[in-house]
Backbone:
């Protein structure tokens, strides 16, 4: 039982890290970035290309995250400008369609240039025993990175002036403008952060299983589900939702059966949305 | 009893109104009927693509009724079509019911599922995005269910419809006319709804939901109506598609294959417009044909096209053209005003 729950938490931390980058961008003005998973895959391919050229893993990861962040900023500076000029539902729909197009462009180009591209980061080391359960070094590193990212994000949004500025834009764009915060600067930085997180999640996922270029769509849908269940715009909510869904998924895989797992997971997500449309920690 | 004198001109007015109302559909039907003779009748490959475009057109009409008319983002078009398709396949093959009964029951099941989803969304007053997410979750769960229940559905490998008309699967032109008929039928239903009190309520709640509610429009009820009728359209299309293909698998109705394309088609043509789905499906059908030979870059070109379209044609083709025509007319009228009166 402990093993099942621990594995669920490991899975869930990954889910949380996946959802957090999407939830931040949505919180800042209602754009669901459907290219999010593809940006993660792009980051992964950059990491693997840099590693192939003989660079150290750490350097490759840094370059990959920067590349993903750069791509995300490019998206914000070009295609997102007309989107943010719209309001309400028009903005949501235009944002959805344009990022969908971007997703196709990225996956198409990757398919053309690196059809067999994949990233697998092997973490050496013996399994470490936690509460009597042996865990592989890869999943421990992945979880530690996710936990670290969660902690840093919460500190950033809770304590720093800039982080509070971001939260003020999430709450009330006009109000933030009145007290001298530039929403467009905040947005660009959050797009950068979101892209970097997408790159990071690609790296942590590749520590336990290879990440191939076909996984972008799955990553996007899971990020979407985690973000909605946690409450769109909430960092802590994304991680909480990730952990809850991770545990639910692992427990059902263990006690009910492998094939039903995904249905139970999706059912849990749908139920949360229906019972609490704001999400677990949404406002 | 003699007719009152004013009925005759009124009847003529009604008749000319009916012609005007159905004219766009009649023109569409005429073009679709003669198209194979002039263009692709002898190429099975192109005809196959045309059939696919028609099927997407039919899905799009149903989706247009649900999303375009009542603002419910149903990201489960593929799943609803799959409910229709698999119900048709299973009922006619395993329960050995006649095909027509299978298709009818498949359509009803899709309508019930769609209605239920809308009812849940209405009861929990979910907004556009949340309706989208809940229906997306339903789509993903449906695909998993198809793969999991492989005894019944054939799982990943798919299911061959033993009772499907094999001649239809080979004879692409026959399939083409089947779906031309279906598309025209669905367009007529859509048009009739648009003109009835239901269409009036749809427009009211699309323009401003609160105002519609205040004016006495039962928003919840009309949303469920739209979802039931639209889902029935999608389920019927899915069932007939299964029947004409003779083989279905989870990919036939997969989210990534169907829903993305249908959303793009309807948004491109113009949400809530009669001919928007047709124009969208035709455009993307042509695009499909044009990109056949671009190999691995196909997806990238497709994405670039989608981006370009939505950057420059935000409202969709039909509303853009309509507003252009209105503006031209206004300019002409102004010119007439400027002219010295004789």
Residues:
């Amino acid at each position: 039982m402990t093993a099942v729950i621990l594995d669920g938490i490991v899975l869930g931390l990954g889910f949380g890290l996946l959802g957090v980058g999407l939830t931040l961008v949505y919180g800042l003005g209602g754009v669901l970035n459907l290219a999010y998973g593809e940006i993660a895959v792009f980051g992964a391919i950059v990491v693997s290309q840099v590693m192939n050229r003989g660079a150290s893993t750490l350097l490759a990861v840094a370059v990959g995250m920067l590349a993903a962040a750069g791509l995300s900023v490019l998206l914000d500076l070009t295609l997102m400008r007309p989107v943010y000029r719209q309001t309400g539902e028009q903005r949501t729909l235009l944002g959805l369609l344009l990022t969908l197009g971007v997703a196709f462009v990225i996956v198409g180009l990757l398919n053309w240039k690196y059809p067999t591209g994949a990233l697998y980061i092997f973490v050496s080391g013996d399994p470490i025993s936690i509460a009597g359960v042996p865990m592989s070094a890869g999943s421990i590193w992945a979880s530690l990175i996710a936990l670290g990212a969660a902690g840093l994000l919460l500190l950033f949004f809770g304590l720093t002036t800039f982080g509070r500025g971001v939260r003020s834009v999430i709450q009330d764009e006009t109000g933030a403008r009145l007290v001298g915060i530039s929403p467009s600067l905040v947005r660009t930085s959050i797009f950068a952060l979101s892209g970097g997180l997408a790159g990071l999640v690609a790296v942590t996922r590749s520590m336990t299983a290879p990440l191939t270029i076909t996984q972008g769509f799955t990553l996007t849908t899971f990020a979407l589900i985690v973000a909605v269940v946690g409450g769109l715009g909430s960092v802590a909510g994304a991680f909480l939702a990730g952990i809850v869904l991770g545990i639910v998924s692992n427990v059902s895989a263990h006690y009910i059966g492998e094939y039903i797992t995904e249905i139970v997971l999706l059912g849990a997500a749908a139920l949360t949305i229906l019972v609490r449309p704001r999400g677990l920690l949404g406002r | 009893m003699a007719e009152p004198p004013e009925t005759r001109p009124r009847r003529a007015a009604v008749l000319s109104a009916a012609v005007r109302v159905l004219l766009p559909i009649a023109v569409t039907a005429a073009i679709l009927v003669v198209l194979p003779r002039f263009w692709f009748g002898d190429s099975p490959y192109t005809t196959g693509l045309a059939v696919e475009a028609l099927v997407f057109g039919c899905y799009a009409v149903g989706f247009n009724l649900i999303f375009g008319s009542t603002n419910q983002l149903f990201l489960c078009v593929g799943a609803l079509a799959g409910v229709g398709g698999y119900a048709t396949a299973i009922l006619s093959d395993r329960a050995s019911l006649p095909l027509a009964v299978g298709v009818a029951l498949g359509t009803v099941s899709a309508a019930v599922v769609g209605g239920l989803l809308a009812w849940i969304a209405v009861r929990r007053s979910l907004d556009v995005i949340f309706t989208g997410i809940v229906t997306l979750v339903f789509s993903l769960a449906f695909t998993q269910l198809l793969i999991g229940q492989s005894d019944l559905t054939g799982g990943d490998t798919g299911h061959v419809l033993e009772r499907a008309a094999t001649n239809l699967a080979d004879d692409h032109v026959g399939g083409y006319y089947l779906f031309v008929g279906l598309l025209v039928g669905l367009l007529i239903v859509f048009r009739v709804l648009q003109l009835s009190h239901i269409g009036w309520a749809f427009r009211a709640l699309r323009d401003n939901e609160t105002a519609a509610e205040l004016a006495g429009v039962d928003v919840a009820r009309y949303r469920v109506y739209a979802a039931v009728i639209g889902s029935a359209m999608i389920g019927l299309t899915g069932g007939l598609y299964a029947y004409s293909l003779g083989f279905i698998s989870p990919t036939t109705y997969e989210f990534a294959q169907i829903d993305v394309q249908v959303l793009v088609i309807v948004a491109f043509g113009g949400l809530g417009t009669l001919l928007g789905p047709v124009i969208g499906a035709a455009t993307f059908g042509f695009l499909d044909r044009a990109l056949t030979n671009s190999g691995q870059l196909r997806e990238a070109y497709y994405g670039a096209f989608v981006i370009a379209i939505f950057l420059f044609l935000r409202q969709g083709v039909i509303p853009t053209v309509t507003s252009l025509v209105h503006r031209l007319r206004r300019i002409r009228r102004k010119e007439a005003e400027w002219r010295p009166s004789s």
Summary: The interface with chain B takes residues 30, 32, 79, 82, 86, 89-90, 92-94, 97-98, 100-109, 111-112, 115, 217, 221, 224-225, 228, 232, 259-260, 262-263, 266-267, 269-270, 273-274, 277 of chain A (CB under 8 Å). The first strand of chain A starts at residue 118 and ends at 119. Residues 128 and 135 of chain A are 5 Å apart (CA to CA).
